[in-house]
Amino acid sequence: MAEGHIVKDFYIGNTRIKIADDYCRDKTPEDVNAILERLSRQLQRSFTAAASARERNEKSGQASNY
User: Which of 4, 8, 16, 44 could bond 20 through an S-S bridge, CB–CB 3.0 to 4.6 Å?
Assistant: First the structure.
């Protein structure tokens, strides 16, 4: 596996975590804003869906995993 441009390398317990910035290091501020906008829309849809599912489950008396 190719090693990326590692900006952070640490352990959580026995698990080694390596964070690379290859995807974003050469992005313009406009590219970054577009990525953040796209991400925020996706996250909002996910949060809304999870909240709706939780509400439906609570109304039906089912346990929720959220």
Answer: 4
